[in-house]
Amino acid sequence: MKKNKGGARGKYVEWLTPEGLIRLEGWARDGLTDEQIAQNIGITAKTLYEWKNKYSEISEALKRGKEVVDLQVENALLKRALGYEYSERKYAQVEMSEEEHYALQTVAVNRFKVENPEATIEEIRLVEMQVSKYKSMLVEEKTKDVAPDTTAQIFWLKNRRPDKWRDKQDVEHSGSMEINNPVKGLTTEELRKLINK
Question: Is 48 contained in some domain?
Fold first, then answer.
């Protein structure tokens, strides 16, 4: 059997459809690399790069997906660098009143009957029994602070303001530096005599 040299030949058409472009954008938004996306398609990374160069629709879909993720990461990094507040909620299971429980059972049974008009009495009773007598109730809510993260701040500043925050600083010096050199002006012969002493 002769192997098709251009295994991906014609395969690109599927990825130029609206559905194909949405899938590509979604994979990029999910953080997949071009190599992983190529693997999902069933082609080599080289072929994907060729498609990106040849078909602007594919290139744009991947770019749009990656921009979304990049913005989300930037926002998360900034939030972490500055610190933030969040609400912590605790719930407890409490028993409902008989009236409330009966009302929920009635809603569940009626929905089941509409979706299953041929339901038996046993099936309806099972639905009725599955409605819990307990409900979740908020018992405590606290606002908590997350302190600013200095590592995130350093990372942000080094990348956003490298002129002021990079590790290596360029220092300019003007003028001359005088060094007191006691052997300055000695001839080679005089230096040899000093060494031999």
Answer: yes
Reply yes or no on whether the pLDDT at 3 is more than 80.
no
Sequence-distant (6+) residues with CB within 8 A of 115 are none
Would residue 2 count as lying in a domain? no
Q: Could you give the number of structural domains in the chain?
A: 2
- Single-letter code of the amino acid located at 15: W
Name every residue whose Cβ is closer than 8 Å to that of residue 122 and which is 6 or more positions away in sequence: none
pTM of the model: 0.45
Question: Whose structure tokens read 């972490």?
Answer: 80
- Provide the token pair at 144: 């908590």
Instruction: Please state, in angstroms and rounded to a whole number, the distance separating the CA atoms of residues 58 and 12.
Output: 9
Q: Are 15 and 56 in contact (CB under 8 A)?
A: no
Which residues does residue 84 pair with via DSSP β-bridges, in sequence order? 146
Residues 73 and 23 reside in one and the same domain: yes
Rounded alpha-carbon distances, angstroms, from residue 85 to 75, 80, 91, 148, 162:
15, 11, 20, 11, 29
Mean pLDDT of the chain: 87
* Both tokens assigned to 116: 């299953």
| Residue 194 main-chain phi, psi, to 5 deg | -65, -40
Which residue segment(s) compose the domain that 21 sits in?
A: 12-82
Asked if 94 contacts 132 with a C-beta cutoff of 8 angstroms, the reply is no
Given 67, 82, 97, the domain boundary residue is 82
What tens digit of pLDDT does each residue of 74-121 get?
A: 899 999 999 999 999 999 999 999 999 999 999 999 999 999 999 999
